[in-house]
Amino acid sequence: MLIHAGDDRSVSIDLALAVWLSLVAGAVNAAGFRALGYFSANMTGNVSTATDLLALGRFGTAIWFLLLLLAFVFGAFASGVLIDVGQRRRLHGIYALSILLEAGLLIVLTILDMVWAAAMSEHLMMIGLSFLMGLQNAASTKISDGRVRTSHVSGIATDLGLELAALLPGARDAETRQVLRSRLLLHVATLCSFFAGGIAGVLGYERIGPMVFALAAALLIVIAVPELRKVYRGGR
User: Fold this and answer.
1) CA nearest 91: which of 220, 10, 14, 3?
2) How far apart are CA 132 and CA 101, in angstroms?
3) What total of structural domains would you count in the chain?
4) Is 46 exposed, middle or buried (0-12, 13-18, 19+ CB in 10 A)?
5) Considering the domain boundaries, does residue 197 fall inside one?
6) How does pLDDT run across 172-224, given as a tens digit for each residue?
7) Residue 100 maps to which CATH number?
8) pLDDT single digits (tens) 68-91
9) Domain for residue 61, yes or no?
10) Cα–Cα dist 83/207, whole Å
11) In this structure, are residues 215 and 204 in contact, taking their beta carbons and an 8 Å threshold?
12) Any transmembrane segments, and where (predicted)?
C-alpha cells in the first residue's frame, strides 16, 4: 500500500490506500472543525471565506484563512521534498516514513493542545492540521500518480460525475469501461471513507476531546509500520 508507486500499483492497493487515509483525513478535518470552527483540509472553502472577508474589510480574519491555505501548500511541499530526497537515496519505504511523520506530528499537536493555553494551542492546532492534511494528500497523490487524493472531495465528486457519464451505454468500449468502473469504485470508496471518518471524528471529539487526534495518529502508525517491515524484510 505504501511501497509500490505509480504503474506498479494495482486497483486493490490504491483502494486500500484511499479507504484508510481518507478515513483519517475525514476524522481530522471534522474533529478540527468541531473543536475550532475551521476546516483543515477544505482549501476551496477557506479561500472562498477569505475572499468574502476581504471584500467585507475583515482583513485580520481573512489573513487567518489564507494562512491555513499556506500551511496546506507547505505541507504538500514538505512531502514532495521528503519523498524526492528519499527516492534519490533509494529509500523504498519513504512513503511509509512520510505517513509515520504525519502520525508523529499529530501526536505532538495533541500534546501541545492539551498543555498549552487555549488561545495559543487553537491557532497552532489549525495551522498544524492543515500542514498535515497537505502532507498526507501530497503523499497519496504522488505514490498513486494522482489516482488517490484523500482530502480532495470536490475533485472526487467531479470525477464521479464524469465517470458515470462515460459509463452510459455506447459511450466507451468494453476495456475502457472496465477501467472506468475501477476508478468509479475507487472514488466512491474514497468519498464514503472520508464521510465515515468525519462522523467518527466528531463523535470521538465529543467523547475524548483532543485525544481523537492521537487515535488518528495511532491508525496511521498501524498502517505504516507493517509497510516498513515489508521493505526491511525484502518484501518490496
Assistant:
1) 3
2) 9
3) 1
4) buried
5) yes
6) 666 677 878 888 899 999 999 999 999 999 999 999 998 999 999 999 999 99
7) 1.20.1250
8) 999 999 999 999 999 999 989 888
9) yes
10) 36
11) yes
12) 62-83, 95-117, 123-139, 184-205, 211-228
